Amino acid sequence: MAEPVEKTCYRHPDRVTGLSCSECGRPICTECMTIAPVGIRCPEHSGKPQGVQRVTRGVRRASFEGSAAKVTKALIGINVAVYVAELVQGGGVYGVNSTIYAKGFLYAPFVAQGDWWRLMTAAFLHYGPFHLLLNMLGLYWFGSLLERRIGSGRFLLLYLVSGLAGSAGALVVSPTSATVGASGAIFGILGAGLVLEQQRDYVFGGSALGVIVANLVLTFAWSGNISVGGHIGGLIGGAAATLALSRFGRGHAAYGRAGLFGVAGIVAVGIVSIAVAYWKARGYA
After folding, report:
1. The CATH number, out of the four listed (2.40.40.20, 1.20.1540.10, 3.90.79.10, 1.10.10.920), of the domain defined by the range 51-284
2. Measured by CB atoms within 10 angstroms of the end CB, which terminus of the chain is less buried, N or C?
3. Which residues are catalytic, by number?
């Protein structure tokens, strides 16, 4: 006779439990359960706001909690500071006439000549205030929620690796176009949310896939002014980095221990991104 399989909490895979949500049936530990009139519930079915309402309230809560989303806020501050510095340098409203822009935007021939820093600096440059505003809203909206879920250290690694993956994607699809913007890294955040949802952790209220599809539709609709490769590359990079955090399904990206293997997996995504960028850029030397 086969031995019964022990169930573990879906949010804490290292905790064996005999409890389960009366709504969806997922196993939960005592820390995650909420007592309801009709049984016990998991966090997603405890009567708390769901969907868009949950995302909205989550962002509001994050903005008022002192320990919440510190890296997200710092990244927003850096992006805004870079744009202000471009204005101070006389770069004009789009910043293109500044030294910061000239030395930082992504362009395959310059990368091929040795300007490898452009793979990262391009993610902190923006083409004017409207471009900056849209990306910073996206970063605040989704980044604050993801950072609170997976922790600041993991979030920063994932953001930077997604930025590298976005630059690699941009070079693959449009190597001779001047590319700037944080959208590749932001798509990486969305990719992370999609992976978490597959692990039944609805960090964006269950709307990650819908948000990704809507943004990809916009990406292809306005492909003349938007980096298609940057968005797709960032999305793939963020999803791959989150899978690495979960040790490719053996743990949970948010609640499990990443360990050396998980961190090495994220670093590997960054290395592969740089390798892809090198492969594409070397032909423009």
Report:
1. 1.20.1540.10
2. N
3. 183, 231
